[in-house]
Amino acid sequence: MENNNVKQGASKQAIQYHYDKSNLFFKLWLDPTMTYSCGMWENATTLLDAQLQKLDFHILQARGAEATSVLDIGCGWGSLMHRLKDEYGVRNVTGLTLSKAQAEWINSKPHSDCQVLLESWTQHQPTRPYDSIISIGAFEHFAKRHLSKEQRINIYRRFFLNCHRWLQKGGYLSLQTIGCGNMLRQDFSQFFEREIFPESDLPRLGEIAEAAECLFEIIQVRNDRLDYAITAREWRKNLKKHAAEALEITDKATVAKYEQYLGMVILGFEVFESMNLYRITFRRINKPREEKRVG
Amino acid sequence: MTVKFTKEQIQEWLVNKIATELAMEEQDVDINTPFKEFGIDSITLVKLTSQIEDWLHIELDPVLMYKFETIHEISDFILKDQLKA
Ligand SMILES: C[S@@+](CC[C@H](N)C(=O)[O-])C[C@H]1O[C@@H](n2cnc3c(N)ncnc32)[C@H](O)[C@@H]1O
Fold first, then answer.
1. Residue A264 is nearest to which of B43, B59, B66, comparing CB atoms?
2. What is the mean pLDDT of residues A26-54?
3. In sequence order, what are the residues at sequence separation of 6 or more whose Cβ sits closer than 8 angstroms to the Cβ of residue A170?
4. What number does the ligand 1 atom closest to the CA of A10 have?
5. Under an 8 A CB cutoff, do A256 and B49 touch?
């Protein structure tokens, strides 16, 4: 069974180590929708605006407004799913997460008729195809550290093969992920690996593009690296502002660790340029030329 | 409320913290030597930023430790920032 070893990506345990820390802890420093990924700051002045604008961007890219069924791969605490339901009236919204705390959170919301599944994209077996697929800030967990480039591309290929299989003809996929920027693999921070996001690694843009070849046409690529510095700055400010409450929920070492992590994110995106923030729009190719490598 | 400290107090505090972090003698921590020459890594600078914020009750962005490269420069900045507050 692949349960613990989500086919070479972060295991359920590794995901829960981070995301199941405490819903209340994350609530202290995320925006009110609990979106836990880079916002879109172009015309936004608040964190909430930036997060909503980002959700709307992906919905637009994935043609989600016209969809009757949308899959959200790595749905977090459900902000995109709720936006799809409440603002766009999408009938069937399905979200996947490996975090039990997130699934419980979504299910505890009143009038929440989104379907959240506590399963990996590697295990998902929909009964009907989706009109659109969106995945925001989850791809970073799909490959473990210390795999070869080829192994990574194989996993990403499997992801695109699955999305291809699950999408309607001509359907769109909107993906947001952090990618390696001006960084060699050996530069990857031990601190992140050990303390913050175990069993996770970052893709390079070329690896994503190669993995999607002859399955998806790449319509648009954006790199909004500086958006992440602004987002992490807001999170860090919130965490510092609510430090006393955070200490009631968790211990001093954890709060300090999260402050460091968010500080490092700001530096990585803004000063070192070691990480990029990709927003990529894909259109499903209806008659793929070949089935490459992964069967 | 913002607590006011003198530039010398801020410098002394930073010298002490950096000496502790890097297991150096305080007299070897020169206030005009760029942080990176002491071999301080980014995590330590980020940690230091948080500690300064908590100590002085100010907001300090981690990128400032890269913009201002020495104890001297960052203390000058903090002092001006305190006076503004
Ligand atoms: C940083 S959060 C982003 C959540 C949400 N998309 C947002 O923007 O707020 C990453 C999410 O990816 C999920 N995830 C990680 N690996 C996964 C996998 N193999 N299958 C499904 N979800 C996964 C986590 O459970 C978590 O919900």
1. B43
2. 97
3. A283, A284, A286
4. 16
5. no
Residue with tokens 């659109």: A132
In this structure, which topology does domain A12-284 adopt according to CATH? Rossmann fold (3.40.50)
Give A206-228 pLDDT, tens digit per residue: 999 999 999 999 999 999 999 99
Instruction: Assign domain B7-84 to a CATH class.
Output: mainly alpha
> What region, left, alpha or beta, does residue A180 occupy, with left being phi > 0 and alpha being psi -120 to 50 degrees?
beta
Model confidence over A53-64: pLDDT tens digits? Answer: 999 999 999 999
Tokens of A261: 């992590």
Q: Give the closest of A237, A260, A266 to B63, CB-based.
A: A266
Which residue, A96, A71, A269, is CA-closest to A179?
A269
ipTM attached to this prediction: 0.92
Residue A3 has pLDDT above 60, yes or no: no
In whole angstroms, what is the distance from residue A123 CA to residue A22 CA?
26
The pLDDT tens digits for B38-73 are: 889 999 999 999 999 999 999 999 999 999 999 999
Q: Chain B residue with minimal CA distance to A255?
A: B50
Tell how far the Cα of A20 is from the centroid of ligand 1, in angstroms.
Answer: 12
Does the CB of A53 have a partner CB in chain B at under 8 Å? no
Cβ contact (<8 Å) for A267 and B63?
A: yes
Three-state secondary-structure class, residue B53 = helix
**Dihedrals phi, psi of A171, to nearest 5 degrees:** -70, 160
The alpha carbon of B75 is separated from its chain's Cα centroid by a whole number of angstroms, namely 6
Looking at the DSSP bridge assignments, the partners of residue A172 are A132, A283
| A237 touching chain B per CB within 8 A | yes
CA A177 to chain centre: 6
Q: What predicted TM-score, i.e. pTM, was given to this entire model?
A: 0.94
